[in-house]
Each structure stands twice: as C-alpha cells, then as structure tokens.
C-alpha cells in the first residue's frame, strides 16, 4: 500500500504580467519561501521535481534543465514532468510518487511559468499546439479552441453567456483576498458582457491573463510531516488521464478525461459521493466556463444539473455550501499555466490548515479537490487533499501575507531593464507517413479521406495507418468520404493566431465539422464562408468549397472553407480507395517552423552584470553562507538556496581574469563553417568563485593557453553574451 | 517492491526514416513491446512518455503522445529527460502500489529537425551563455578541462570513438558502425577544439518502447523478464559558470543511489557490462570515472556501439542502450552478445548544456529473485 504523503509548506512569488526576475530567480524565490514555511533546509530535501508547460513561453529549450539551479535541484535527483496546462496539478502527483514509492522521504515540488519573454504575444506559442499538417495552416490559436469548446458547452448544457460570466465575477472577487493576485477586481456580469469580443462567445473578461510566477510546495512522508507540523495536510487521492489528441473526434461538451481522473482520485481517497464528501473545489478556470465544464466532470454528472443548481443557488460563493475557487483562481490570481495549478494545491493547503486569512472558509472543512486541465482539451489532473480535523486559528505567515511581502518585481515593459533579444531559427520538415500522405493526396484531388478500423467499427479522419482505439491494429481500409457535414460548434473570431486583431475588421468563422459518413463526433476543424455570422448555427449543414484543381497542392488549405448547403445536397457514400503508395517521391515532408522571437529580461542579477559591464566593470555577490563572492552576480545561492542581498555586491577587478578553459570554435550557431574561427573562454577571477564565459578577441589561436591572464573589454551599450569580450594581457 | 521489464520494442535506428510518421514509428515499437511482453493494451495502467517540446516541434508535445501507444484516456504524463529518467519515474509509479503495468516511450525524428545546432543553442541560458557560435563550444570547454584534470590523453578519447564505432559494425540496429583508427579521429575536422567531428555522435531516427511491471505481472505474462535492481538520477549545477567541468557530479550521485539500491559494492567486479552515454567520446570516460569504473580495466563498455556507433537519438538515446541491455541479459543480443551477462548498468545523459544523468541497474532473472 502507498505511504501517506503530506504537504507542509508553500512558497510563491507575486503573479505578474511581466516580471523583472529571470525564470531561475522567480523559481528560487518560491523555493526559498516554501522551505522557510516548512521549517526546512535544502539539505533536508531528498528530491526535486518541477513542472512547467511549453518551453516556448520561457523561450528556453530543455527548460527544466535551465530552471534546475533556481529549483534547488543542484546535485540532487531532479526531474521535470509536464502535461500542458494540467501540469500544475500533475506536479504534486509526481511529487507524491517520489514519496509514496518509498524511494524518497521528502520532495520539493515547483511550478514555474514566465510567459512574458515570448513575442509577438505569449498566445502565439499556442499556434504550435495544433497538428502541424492538418490544423496549423489555418492559423488557429488557443482562444479559438476554447471558444469552440465554450460554444459547444453552452449548446449542450443550455448556458447563456451572462450565466458563465458569473464565474468570472465570482473568481475575480475571491482573488481580492489573495496576496499573489494579479487582477483581483469587483466586477458585474455587465462588465464581463461589455468587455471586448475576441472570438465569440469569448470576451476579454471571460479569460484569465498571461502571467509570470512560480509556486513551490514541500511534500514529506507522514513521519516527517508530523514532526514538523501540528496539522499537516495529506494527499488523499490522485488521478490523471490523457485523452486522444484528435480533438475533433471527441465529445467537447463533457470532459470524460476529468471524470476518469476524478474517479481514480476518489477511489483512492474513499470518496463515494463527491457532492457530499468534498468541502471545497479548485477546478482549473483559465476561462470562466471552464470552471463549470470541469465541475461537471469532478462531480461526475454528465447531465450538468448539479453544477447548474449549485451555481444559481449561490453555493459556489465562499460562504456557500460548495465554495468554488476560493483562491480567486486563474481568472483572478492570474494564469502562469503550470504555476496556477500548484497555486490551487496551495489554496487547499491554506484552507485545510486554517491559513487562508481573509479567504478562510468560515466553517470546519476537511477535504478539498484541485484540478487542472490542458493540452488539446484533453488532460485532466486531480488531487484530493484532506486535513485531520479543525486546524488552529492562530495567525501564520500565510494568513497575514500581503502582496508587498511576496517576492517578485512587476515591470511595465521589458525595455525598462537590461534585456537580451533572440530570434532562434527552429525549422523542421516532418515525415508525413502513410496516413497523412494519403490524406494530403486526397485533398489535392478534392477529396476528404478517412480510414476504417474494423475492430472498433470506427471511421477515422484524418486517415491513420494504425487504430489508436483499436489495439493499434494496422488499418488497411481507406475511403474517399463526402465533403459535406454538420457544424458541431463554431466561433466568430476577431483575432489572429498571435492575438493581434484581424485587419480591417475582418472576421474568421472557425467550426468543427462532423463529416458525413464518419462517426458522430468525427470530423475536422476549418473555416466557414458564404455565410453571415448571425446565420451560423450548430447543426448547420455545410459543404467544402475547394480551390480550383490546378491550384491545389495537397494541403488542408485546398479547401477554401465550408459553405452552407443550399437546398437539398446529396450525401455521397464513402468510396473505397487505394492508399498512397509510399516511395522516395511520394513520401514528402511537411515544413514546420516555430514563429516566435524573444526578449529576455537579464534578471535582477543579470541587470547588475550588464550595467557594470557597460561601464567596463565587473562585480560578484557576497554569499555569507560560505563566505565567498560568487560570479556572475546572483540573487540566490544555488547550493544553500538562501537569497543573497543585492547590497552585498562586491566589485571585482576586471583585469584580473585568468583563462580556466577555452575552445576554438569553427562553426556558427547554425552549424555552418565560420570564415574565421571564434575563441570562447571560461575566465576565473582570483577573488571569486565561479567564472565568466565570453569571446576572446585574438588573431592568433596558437598562443592561447590555460592560465593566461586576460582583461575584460568595455563593450558597446548592447547586452548579451556576445558582448562579453576578453583580451589577452 | 521489485519492478521488472516485461517487454521491449523498437523501430530504427537509421539516419532518416522517410515514409513513417513519428506516430507510425512509435506505434510499431509499441506493438512490438506489447507482443514481447505478452500483454494486451487493456492490461496497461499508464504510460510515461519522454519528450521535449522543441525536439517534437510542438508546444506542449505531450498532447501528441497517447494515440500511438494505444493508451488513450489512460494515466499518461511526460518527462523531459533521458529515457532513463522516464524509467526512474515509472519504477516509482509502480512502487506506489497503484499501478501494475506502466509503459515508457521515447523517440527521435532527428532527421526532421533542420536546425539542430540552433535548437541546441536555444537550450543555453539566453543572458549569459547563448553565443553566436556553435553550441558545441561547451563540449570543447568541458573536454579540455576533463583532459587537464583527469590525466586522460587525446588518444584515450579518440580510442573511445574508434572502439564504439567498431563495436557497432556487428550491431544490425546501429546506424554508424565503421572502422576508423585513432589518427582518423584526431585528424577529423575540428569543431570546437579539442573536439573533432568523429568524437561526436551523429543523430539518428528511432523509437523505443519498454513495458515495466510488478514482479507478479512479469511472472504472469513475460516471456523472459529482466529485473530493475536499482535506479538513480541526479543533476549537476545548471549554472555552467559554477559547474565542475572535469567531472559528472550528476552521474556520481545517480550511480551512488542505484548501487545502494542494488546492493552493489564493487561495480567493476559485479557488473558484466556498462552501457554508458557517449554523445561525446570524452563523456564516456568522464561517466565511467563517475561510475567508479576504471576504463582501463577489463570492463565491457557499450558492446553495442553506444551512441557514437548507434546514433544520437535525443531522449531515446538511453532507450537504445536500455533495449540492448535487456537483449544482453536475455542472451539475445546476437553478434555483440556479452557472454553470461547477469547484471548490467545503463546510463543516460541529457546532453549539453546539462549534467543531468540517470542510471538503471538491470539483472537477469535469478539473482535475488528466486
């Protein structure tokens, strides 16, 4: 049987639109606070696990390894996990595995997201969550998929926009009591309804903001938890489920994956009736409707009646019988994706241990559930936490916490501080394989194609070479299908893939279309045309409008859009075809690109480094813990995880450097041969621990050796590694 | 609780894999692993997929993991790490007692990434470490420090490149077997001195799927189970200005944990073969030092050819070694078979710019498990 696992401490930064701190610095601030709160030293931590969602936000490939030092992972077992937006609640589950397995006694769990470096807008990172061949050419972004799901949810469960706005109002109000909150506010339903329409039915105030933040918690086994805390909060149940990535072949109204994850967690926690057995709910609420969508899953009620009754009776208020997002949720506290989920776990900890201060539920509570969700509307992560009785009412650090007490430095603009810009060239050519090649060949011929799984009696679009629901059986039955179908859901969008407004007041109507002859939910996403927005309806019959044959290239864009069927269109029956013949010519690859650029703040310590460098100076930071000066400057010591005081900056002699190691590099950043090799040196300074990496300005690579003295060159006023240049003395 | 390997599957390893999508490649490896394990998909309790966003070319790459493993709507999560980090996580997951059979997957479509060096550079700290030169500069810095501090010579490093590529000739799965000599390696094109082209592994495509389960499940289903006697993973400092570049601290800590779990006191004596990350030739020597094994002794290292002979498969690199290790313990490794292999060690490294490493110790059925 699993060992019991408890949460005994929490740390977090402010949630901010734009933080000055580097990702590592944010992470270290949250970790430092969590360790203090748990009354522990980093040396008492056996393992560290970290959650962060896409690398495209922070703008660092292998971001887990980049965050390692800030996470306290140096010289420790360290692992990153992720399930997109579901990461934040997966994180304590991964931490739970570390301890429940018996392998470790303590585990530090951190979630970080710094979305602000990403340009043109963090939302642009979501273009590449869509299938690269069948969906990305349509220039979709996250708001579109949410809007499509929201419209379907409203249609199936009979919600009006005004009713969904109640959640936005509730959560933003609840956030007024949260010290980390980014956009707490007292709003009315009318405010939400009157906010700018982005992609019907989604309006600005239906959505959570983009945010920078980090959250950390300390998990331990039962013995340590009881020794450290009078009232530990235990993880009683965990569940996580991942549905298919073919989201146009799925029920978008009810989150089956959340319900399955909840069932797993409830079974482990011994919960048989969630409405009766759970006192507080922290479902993921990146959009207002999502909280209700997820609650249907968490309460295992596909009819949606329970949630509707609770919403309209006021039971979701903090004073009600079933408080919803008492923290203020993503809508009010902010939504640094992975960190949001862990903030919800932190809220259960605060509430169940009586430390929620102004947000404290004013009646005895014993059990709460937190949930996160993500990917292509496909993952559910669920954690049930419980306390053992009435927690002490005396004030604690967290019950009295103010926003100004929390670490984190909000910025108005990245340009206000030293920063580094970068534009990576991330280019790809993806092998399409048999299934997609057959699909694209069909599109070129003006046909929508699918393949058929005999085991499941299931027609799949786009065609697959194997059946994901049918035991991975190879599939050998391919069909040309009708190019007609019915609109399952739609959105009227005013924004482009990067969140910028579409030019000239243009709109795009995206729809999920169930193709005739395939299963109930089996279809594809595309544009609608030849129809006024007010005339679009779910269930509307549409037919593909194709480009002229000579202009078709074998792309989803060979279909211009789907237009309403005028009069009575005949439905073609599927016609069996021969799949693509794969050879060296037909097996072509599909081009790919990550279309993002970045502006990174240099961080608090990096700003010091580059400001000094611009003046031809160099400084380190004094670490009292081990009485050394460390270079480059830092706001934390990655071994002790103690924060370092900026005032302890120590000036170093920029002419006292000595080459520790060097390399003569013959290729440029893209791997092409350089006309002239470049020397990179690692330079140490006698008064400091650490080193500085830079270029060596030399014409003679033969004279370089370890131990050679160098001086730092005063650069132009630009910032970035290439501006760090040394000269041989 | 003992955790066993029930089955293994792969697709690859080749410089390109035109004609198969990543999904089709993984589905092939998965079907092979499930068949080898003697299980059906409904018996699987969950999966750990080992992926990085920008290697897969997606934001939130884990979206695209469940279908090709046949595990739609099951508990699935993703570990960005080496394949062996995924093994470590799956072992813990089983040891919680709530999961009986868990699948681990990793793949490489390296041939589909057109700007691999740009991608690697993107893993470096943007504020201090992202220069406009090849990101392999850090391997050059590291190799020079290692040579200065360890006493190994350039020729010792070149020997590794020669031996692993030669071992790979007999391995039908390896992409880059070949007969070279030390002079060939030292005289090959300079990339980031003292690193030359033949000291670096080249990328390849492939997928690896492994089925892990409880001992009870292994006895029930598996044709030839192999046991995981110990796992460990750890990371050295990610701040490269303050990392010791001559040693792999990550490997030292990971190995110490795995040895302790497996009850191994004298690794060179008790372990029959070492499958060790050799993405750069000097890293194999550095890793062996950290594993407390003297490369000069009679230990068997990377009999399959390692990554230098087999190819750099990104996250799946440790998976290729893991697959080979299981084959050796089963006595099914063909021409490269290590005679009477009973205990083997598999090591994985995340690659630059990290010192994040993982270790697994595998045992053939018999020892400690009667």
Descriptive keywords:
heterodimer, A: 729 residues, alpha+beta, Peroxisomal Thiolase, Chain A, domain 1, OB fold (Dihydrolipoamide Acetyltransferase, E2P), 3 domains, 9-stranded mixed sheet, 22% helix, globular, B: 370 residues, alpha/beta, two-stranded antiparallel ribbon, 13 helices, 11 strands
Written description of the protein model:
The complex is a heterodimer of chains A (729) and B (370). Chain A is of the alpha+beta class and 729 residues long. Chain A has 3 domains: 5-116 and 160-388, 3-Layer(aba) Sandwich (Peroxisomal Thiolase, Chain A, domain 1), CATH 3.40.47.10; 428-593, no CATH class; 603-728, Nucleic acid-binding proteins (OB fold (Dihydrolipoamide Acetyltransferase, E2P), Beta Barrel). In chain A, 22% of the residues lie in helices and 27% in strands. Chain A has 16 helices and 34 strands. Chain A has a 9-stranded mixed sheet, with helices on both faces. In chain A, strands 6, 7, 18, 19, 20, 21 and 22 form a 7-stranded antiparallel sheet that branches. The longest helix of chain A is centred in the N-terminal third of the chain and has 16 residues, at 23-38. Chain A is globular. Chain B is an alpha/beta fold and 370 residues long. Chain B has one domain (1-365): Peroxisomal Thiolase, Chain A, domain 1. Helix content of chain B is 35%, strand content 20%. Chain B contains 13 helices and 11 strands. In chain B, the strands form 2 sheets. Chain B has a 9-stranded mixed sheet with strand order 3-2-4-7-1-8-11-10-9. A two-stranded antiparallel sheet of chain B has the order 5-6. In chain B, a hairpin with a 6-residue loop joins strand 10 (343-349) and strand 11. In chain B, helix 6 (154-169) packs across helix 11. In chain B, 72% of the residues are buried. Chains A and B meet through helix 3, strand 3, helix 4, strand 9 and helix 9 of A and helix 1, helix 2, strand 3, helix 3 and helix 4 of B.
